Write a sequence for this structure.
């Protein structure tokens, strides 16, 4: 269903018991809430699973296409205001992790626990910024399709690329279905985001960091370092998965997530 927040309508999906512990899933770039399908179906037996399409991606409005990380966080907080679920477990993958980290920095009281998957707390270095400028050129000149082919090769793990052509196609299709203007806006938001590493050291809630063993974009060493920064942090490495661990090996990802949620009581 669509929900009007700030100046745009965002696609929002809710599954599971209304009185279950609320878990908000924030997808990565350039995907949409469908990347969480396997978590929604597996965990909605017990948990109130909430997810949405970040503005400009999936079925959410593109608006003016000029985004910042602050605007993404404004949308997330507006969604929480609207649904009023009380403190939630935030779970963000990659760009979703950037959004969650900044939301934890701005309004920590909104969160009961945090799950960061295949992401990083550091801001972009110069090489990454220039890479994003190139990506914007490709998006403007050739659209989402051209971007999809190169990104899918980098994002998916070697095991998925070799053995799971259905997943490769699903991911490619998800990337292609996006509006290039919304994707450009997301790149601008990521280029200009701040370093949120200090949030980890100050976290007062449990943190689980999940990472694909074959993630070359945000590798396991970085995940271990993030978990080590937090007073109550743990890391789980998902075998046979790259940067999209939730989608590439959902069984292992869901086991780690369920165990973490169960331990929250
Ligand atoms: C993502 O999966 O969200 C992207 O890899 C994030 C990024 O481009 O930094």
């Amino acid at each position: 269903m669509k929900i009007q927040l700030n100046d745009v309508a965002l696609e929002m999906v809710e599954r599971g018991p209304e009185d279950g512990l609320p878990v908000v899933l924030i997808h990565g770039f350039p995907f949409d809430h469908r990347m969480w399908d396997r978590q929604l179906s597996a965990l909605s037996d017990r948990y109130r699973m909430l997810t949405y399409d970040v503005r400009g991606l999936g079925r959410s409005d593109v608006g003016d296409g000029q985004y910042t990380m602050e605007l993404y966080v404004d949308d997330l907080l507006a969604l929480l205001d609207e649904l009023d679920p009380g403190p939630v477990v935030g779970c963000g993958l990659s760009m979703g992790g950037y959004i969650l980290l900044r939301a934890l920095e701005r309004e920590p009281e909104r969160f009961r626990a945090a799950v960061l998957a295949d992401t990083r707390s550091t801001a972009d270095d110069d090489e990454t910024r220039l890479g994003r400028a190139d990506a914007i050129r490709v998006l403007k000149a050739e659209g989402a399709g051209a971007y999809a082919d190169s990104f899918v090769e980098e994002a998916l793990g070697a095991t998925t690329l070799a053995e799971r052509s259905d997943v490769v196609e699903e991911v490619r299709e998800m990337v292609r279905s996006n509006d290039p203007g919304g994707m450009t806006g997301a790149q601008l938001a990521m280029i200009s985001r701040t370093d949120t590493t200090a949030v980890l050291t100050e976290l007062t809630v449990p943190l689980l960091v999940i990472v694909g063993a074959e993630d070359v974009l945000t590798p396991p060493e970085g995940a271990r370092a993030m978990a080590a920064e937090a007073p109550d942090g743990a890391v789980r490495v998902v075998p046979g998965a790259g940067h999209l661990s939730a989608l590439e090996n959902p069984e292992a990802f869901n086991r780690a997530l369920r165990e973490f949620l169960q331990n929250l009581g």
